[in-house]
Design a protein that fits this description.
By secondary structure, the chain is an alpha/beta fold. The protein folds into 2 domains: about 200 residues, 3-Layer(aba) Sandwich (Rossmann fold), CATH 3.40.50; about 90 residues, Helicase, Ruva Protein, domain 3 (Orthogonal Bundle), CATH 1.10.8. About 45% of the residues lie in helices and about 15% in strands. The protein contains 14 helices and 13 strands. The strands form 5 sheets. A 5-stranded parallel sheet has the order 3-6-9-1-10. A hairpin with a 2-residue loop joins strand 7 and strand 8. Pfam families: AAA_3, AAA_lid_2. InterPro entries: ATPase_AAA-3 (IPR011703), CbbQ/NirQ/NorQ/GpvN (IPR050764), ChlI/MoxR_AAA_lid (IPR041628), P-loop_NTPase (IPR027417). GO terms for molecular function: ATP binding; ATP hydrolysis activity.
Length: about 325
Amino acid sequence: MSLDYDSQPAPAKTLDDVLDVIGRVRTAIETVIEGKRDSIDLALIVLLAEGHLLVEDVPGVGKTMLAKALGRSIDCSVRRIQFTPDLLPSDITGVSVFNQQSREFEFKPGGIFANIVVGDEINRASPKTQSALLESMEERQISVDGTTYLLEAPFMVVATQNPIEMEGTYPLPEAQRDRFMARIQMGYPTAHAELDMLEHHGTSDPLSRLTAVTDAATVRGLVQAVKDVYVAPAVKEYVVQVVNATRASRDLRLGASPRATLQLLRAARAHAALARRDYVTPDDVATLAGPVLAHRVLPSTEAQLARRSTDEIIAAAVRAVPIPDRP
């Protein structure tokens, strides 16, 4: 079976197009998610940087709602995978089934074949099933029974997970966490935002009223425009120094990987574009260091005993790195 996608080049876009389209997507999502502008903006940065997003928090704070709203605001294919202990890897990747009429095996695509894949409660599945996402998240392809199938761009996994202290969860392995560009924590809404939620969401489902404001081809063009954002050599060196600071920190027994360095730079480009700049500054890098690096590192025993979070450790590492001259 062939899974050929439209290979037409993405239409050229400018930074003004990025601001216009992403502004419309943000407005659409905010009709569903009240008072979470920072979380929404980070999700959009990950989309523009061709990354994947991990949304971690307690149940009921809007993790899945954010992922669904992002998918519905873009006219593209969206699939939701509910991760459970009995979910199989073939449910994600797909499986070859023998067709009695044609006397041949046919490939039945799994849930991963979509532009935006919503992985709900990813840490409730077994590590074997979680690992079924590894190839698709890094190489944007799936290999089944010796055949490789390419995934259509844009491709983004938005996974939600509950804190590992909760019953029935499996901690994500380091290789899995490292493939997520950023992690966000929704947090509880403010009292004002919660009142607005009761007013607007109490009698109807806001997702049912959400309509797409852009399409996959446009998003591909926006991604290409973000890649053209200039990064000065001094800023690239700053990115490397920030990541190296995590590897040298005594509070961490596992620092950030080279993949983290690359993804931090990509996210910084998207952050600069949303700030109406065609160049990256050290502030872009410092702002995103926590969301991009904190979920990839492992604290030392001493840091755990002192109850120091990885976000605090990353922030301290960033402060210790000298800021280069502005480009």
